[in-house]
Every structure is written in structure tokens, then in C-alpha cells.
Amino acid sequence: MKPVNEIPTPADLSAFWMPFTANQQFKAAPRILTSAAGMHYRSEDGRTILDGTAGLWCCNAGHGRREIAEAVAAQISHLDFAPTFQMGHPLPFELADRLVETAPPGFKHVFYTNSGSESVDTALKIALAWQRARGEGTRTRLIGRERGYHGVGFGGISVGGIPGNRKWFGSLLPGVDHLPHTLDIPRNAFTRGLPEACPALADELEKLVFLHDASNIAAVIVEPIAGSTGVILPPKGYLKRLREICTQHGILLIFDEVITGFGRLGAPFAAQEFEVLPDMITCAKGLTNGAIPMGAVLVQGPLYDDMMAAGKGGIELFHGYTYSGHPVAAAAGLATLEIYRQEQLLTRARDMAGYWEAAAHSLKGCKHVKDVRNYGLVAGVELEPMAGAPGRRAYEVFVRCFERGALIRVTGDIIALSPPLIIEREQIDQLFNLLQEALQAQR
Ligand code: PMP
């Protein structure tokens, strides 16, 4: 077999059915990335592309990190795979200790998965199992949020609030409700950081509790900041109020931190940044800097203790994946956390946030820009949709940015930006200058 850097892209791109992609459109004009280092990708046609999205919100320490590559290579030749069902090997235990140190207070246990979607479905299952284990087996209802994205498992699309991700797939999980989303552009357009408080939004949870009775509700799941659906921020006090209502009614609160975890907002997790403690945190992506698939559910001590007590020495959770705690992924995770620690990347977004915010809001006044939202090292830029062609405008900006040398991400008519946390000021300038040019070139 040829070395990886000599394998050309096949002329016929039909065999790979691509995820979340208009396959035929893509194949007509493919954008192929062939290598990456630091803040940049290299495209097949030899251009350098500034990474404004950390891949897919995952390469927080930048690309091509030698420490991760070496840890992975060493682990594969040392122990490529070993089961974690009734067996163990050292690395996932070690990584769990490091994760518990990084996590907010009280998080003492880690269940491993391979992706954000699996983390979400795992957390939902733990919630149901815990309610049952403590004798509250009637609590089976789950509450998500409109415009929430929780991956693509059946649990995730059921609690998720994206119509396009749900409508093809039947009746989904029964007994799921959705809180309203928190995006209110007429009121909050161009707010810097969190929008002003809007107590009525969190109080919608009270209404659901009243309607169904707390004795039927297991858990609420929200992204502290919704990323994939266009950077939707929680109003001030919103998450705290959800916490209060959940605590009052014995409902578990799950933060889906697949995007916000590992430093995106300026603290290791959003729970620390917003000072709200959920019962479980789902994560993935930045856990291994995107280099090897791995996810995790972080679990509060008492929740785990209750499950152990209920297990009475038998199996406490009938759930797990062949690759839960995979040695190679765990090696990547340990190397990644070490980079974050040494380079203080988990709090770097806090230092860069002011500069980032000013740069993002410089787009106010650009053609068709109707809102800019930001927090930490994340920003959303919402465009007026083109008449009769929703999503077209942002897609054209995406293509234009790529041609000019910047990778951005679009969802509908919203541009989402989430660069590697190593980004420097000049690169922030470059990213927003390129974006500004692309926006001004719109029809
Ligand atoms: N939850 C959230 C909040 C996400 O942003 C994502 C992915 N963008 C997922 C879950 C799903 O993660 P994955 O694609 O790794 O399954």
C-alpha cells in the first residue's frame, strides 16, 4: 500500500455515501482536504485554508499535533485493542481520572462512548435507569428543546429539535417534549455575549412539569450553547433556572457539551463557565482533539452511587460499546488533555474572547447580516434568507470563503465560527476579513 500522502482521490466519488451532504452537488464540485497543520488545512488543489471551525468543532488544539500522533502510534503497537467488558487495561482508567480532575465539582465517573451521538443516547439511558433504580420507574419522559442538536441516534433525534433530522425516521421515542428555543433576534440582535434575562423561557419547563406531573419525567437535556443549529445563546440566568426547576422536581439535568466542552467558552466546560451544575455532561470531539473518535458521559457521584447500590453486586448498567474506553482513543485523549494543560488552552478562549467579539461584531452592517452572536471562541452570523431559497445565501458565502482560503460552517442561513483555541489575533483578523469580503460579494 502507498503511503497515505500518495493516495490520490479517486476520479469517481460515488461509493462513499457522505453524511449530511448533498452528495450529487458535492461530486459536481468536490472540495477535498488533503493535509492539516496548526490552524490550516491544505486543499487538493494546493491552497492553504484557514480553519475557522476547528474541523467540526473538534480540533481545539489545532491540527497535526505530534504528541497525539506519537501516543496513538505507540499505543497501537503496544496494545491495539483489549475488551472493557469484564476486563480492563490501564489507559481508560487513567484518562477517567484526568477527566474527573478537569470536570466541574462532583463529577466523579466517566462512561466512554465513540461519539457525541452515543454519549447522548448513553446519558438518556442512564437517566431512565437511575430513575428506575431509585424506585421512580414511572419517570420515563424526556425533555429536549426546539432547535437542539443531540446527534443522530434515535434518542438524540427524539430529544433534538431539528425537523429535517426527525421527519424521515418514523415516530421516534415516545414521551418526549421540547422546550422553546432561546433565539429572539428582534429583541436581542447583535447582543454581545449572553442576551438579557428572559425568565418566561425557563419557566416553560414548569408548565411541562405541571402538565405531565414530575412523577413521569426523567430528565431534561440541553446544549448550554446550541452550536450546530446556529450558535443559540442562553439568556442570563436561564440555565440556573432550569437547574432549580429540575432539582425541585427530582428531574435530572443533562448538559450536552459535545461542542462547549474542552475550552470552547473559556472554561473547561460550560457548566463551569456558567456556574450551573448538571447531573451529567455529554462530551466527545475535543476530548481527543478530533484525532480518534471518542466520547464520554461524565456522571455526578451520587447518581453513580445509587446505581451501584441498586446493582447489589450484579451488572449495574446493561449498556456499553465494543470500543468503550478503546486503548488507542484513550491514548489520544490523554495526550490531548496534556496539551490542553501545558498550553492552558481550556481557559484561552476567555483571554481571546474580547478580541474575537470585536472582530465578529465588525460584520454588523455587512450585506444581509441580520444578527451576530458570540461567546468565548464561538460566533454565529445570521443572514437574511434569499427569497424562495432558504440556506442558499449562507451556502454561497461558505463556497466563496473556501475559494478565498477560509473554512467556515453554515447551517441554514447561519454561519458558525469556532476556530481551534490556538488561534492568534492576526488569524482572527484574517478570518473575519475574508468573511467580510465574502459577505460583501453577495448578490
Ligand atoms: N451533541 C451536540 C451538541 C453536537 O454538537 C453534536 C455534533 N455536532 C453531537 C451531539 C453529535 O456528535 P457526533 O457527531 O460525534 O455523534
In short:
The protein is of the alpha/beta class and 443 residues long. The radius of gyration is 22 Å and the shape is globular.
Description:
This protein has 443 residues and is of the alpha/beta class. It folds into 2 domains: 154 residues, Aspartate Aminotransferase, domain 1, CATH 3.90.1150.10; 274 residues, Aspartate Aminotransferase, domain 2 (3-Layer(aba) Sandwich), CATH 3.40.640. It is built from 16 helices and 15 strands. The chain has a 7-stranded mixed β-sheet with strand order 4-10-9-8-7-5-6, sandwiched between helices. A 4-stranded mixed β-sheet has the order 1-2-3-13. It has a 4-stranded antiparallel β-sheet with strand order 11-12-15-14, with helices on one face. β14 and β15 form a beta hairpin. The protein is globular and about 60 Å long. The site of 4'-deoxy-4'-aminopyridoxal-5'-phosphate (PMP) has 14 residues, from α5.
